[in-house]
Specification:
The chain has about 260 residues and is an alpha/beta fold. It contains 11 helices and 10 strands. Strand 1 and strand 2 form a beta hairpin. The structure holds acetoacetyl-coenzyme A (CAA).
């Protein structure tokens, strides 16, 4: 597969994937999700690649979310399908890979961007990183596993606060919440991710894949299916039309609650 929206390279046992749509703040459109699936699958099957580092291109964003302009005219069924397909191809796929994925979060990780980091096995960030699940400000809910994985990582109380207020947290707060395990200056981010990768490289790949499966097995919930259903339902509301239109028109949304 020829990639248009991602860059990949392989070096000293590490597979690098960079999401490369900097003008759209690396927002995840359908094609980018398909390319990421293909690259991750290829690295997962490559015995020379024992750790993957995933990052965003530029100095501003890891990923600013799912591509709002692509889905704003979808109906309920298309919305449901978007979430289900995205979870299958990327978010559940990453979480259940045998090869560990380190998200090197180099700026905004919002909506689907934070969800991608949350599905990764380890998250390291630069000091300028900002995280949030702002979907309710668009009239929709997180649809790529965020309602489940954020609560699993930060606890239900903090997840409720973050999702219902739609507010962003800075890197330091996200570190305190356990979203990140390390926060470093942007210029040291990739080196720090490589250092963590080199510690993993010393260990048994087979045991690592068993450990990932064992840890994940305690976290499967019915909530992932419920999230897809409710994400789809949100697409039939007037609030969703208003929220996404307001984003594109760069104005504040006026929600009617319908
Ligand atoms: N989708 C599509 N385009 C996006 C985008 C997104 N999620 N985020 C940013 N962009 C685009 C902007 O529209 C803009 O494009 P134009 O230059 O063509 O107008 C470009 O990227 C640069 O963005 P801004 O001018 O907005 O940059 P800023 O510095 O003023 O603001 C920001 C940065 C706060 C991250 C702001 O871009 C923003 O709020 N983005 C949207 C964040 C968001 O709501 N994400 C959740 C998406 S929904 C989702 O992810 C659903 C799901 O769970 C499945």
């Amino acid at each position: 597969m020829e990639y248009q929206n991602i860059l990949t390279k392989k070096e000293s046992g590490i597979g690098y994937i960079t999401i490369n749509r900097p003008k759209q703040l690396n927002a995840l459109n359908k094609q980018t999700i398909e390319e990421l699936h293909s690259a991750l699958k290829k690295f997962n099957n490559d015995t020379e690649v024992r750790v993957i580092i995933l990052t965003g291109s530029g100095e501003k964003a890891f990923v600013a979310g799912a591509d709002i302009k692509e889905f704003m005219n979808f109906n309920s069924e298309q919305g449901r399908e978007l979430a289900a397909k995205g979870q299958e191809l990327l978010f559940d796929f990453v979480e259940n890979m045998e090869t560990p994925v380190i998200a090197a979060v180099n700026g905004f990780a919002l909506g689907g961007g934070l969800e991608l980091a949350l599905a990764s096995h380890i998250r390291i960030a630069s000091e300028n990183a900002k995280v949030g699940l702002p979907e309710v400000s668009l009239g929709v809910i997180p649809g790529y596993g965020g309602t489940q994985r954020l609560a699993q990582i930060v606890g239900k109380g903090r997840a409720m606060e973050m999702i219902l207020t739609a507010e962003m947290k800075d890197a330091e707060t996200a570190l305190e919440y356990g979203i990140f395990t390390q926060v470093v200056p942007l210029e040291n981010l990739m080196e720090t991710a490589r250092k963590t990768a080199s510690k993993i490289l010393k260990n048994s790949p087979k045991a690592i894949s068993f450990a990932i499966q064992a840890i994940n097995s305690g976290f499967y919930t019915k909530g992932f299916v419920k999230e897809i259903e409710l994400f789809g339902q949100a697409f039939s509301t007037e609030d969703f039309k208003e929220g996404t239109t307001a984003f594109v028109e760069r104005r504040k949304a006026e929600f009617s609650g319908k």
